[in-house]
Write a sequence for this structure.
């Protein structure tokens, strides 16, 4: 899955063996670091075409709760995106999965659960009784 891209230091095209590589060699990497040209990697943008099913499911769940743009929602989406790649070991993937579950649970805990029809009727009845005893 190597792709060709320009080197961040010298500009010559090279075959990138990893998706996050930016330089054609260690020499160019160190040269960019020492000259102050080394840049921070940009946050990857995920489109629906290249997103994993886990990322899309997490996004749908967070959007339904209105939390996709929250801090915790963005953390969960970043983890889901990383889990969609093939670069982590099994133990790293297990740790990411556990952390993703924790973040999604934390995000959804702040959203009140929808009331069932019975709960709604009970709440209205209780409110009506409270008004009758207060008035």
């Amino acid at each position: 899955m190597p792709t060709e891209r320009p080197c961040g230091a010298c500009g010559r095209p090279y075959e990138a063996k990893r998706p996050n590589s930016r330089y054609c060699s260690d020499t160019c990497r160190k040269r960019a670091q020492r000259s102050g040209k080394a840049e921070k990697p940009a946050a990857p943008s995920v489109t629906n075409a290249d997103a994993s099913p886990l990322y899309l499911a997490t996004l749908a769940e967070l959007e339904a709760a209105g939390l996709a743009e929250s801090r915790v929602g963005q953390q969960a989406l970043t983890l889901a995106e990383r889990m969609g790649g093939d670069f982590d070991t099994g133990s790293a993937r297990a740790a990411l999965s556990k952390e993703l579950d924790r973040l999604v649970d934390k995000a959804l805990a702040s959203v009140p659960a929808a009331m069932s029809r019975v709960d709604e009727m009970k709440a209205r009845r209780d409110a009506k009784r409270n008004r009758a005893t207060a008035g």
Observations:
- Helices lie at 26-35, 53-64, 71-83, 90-109, 117-134.
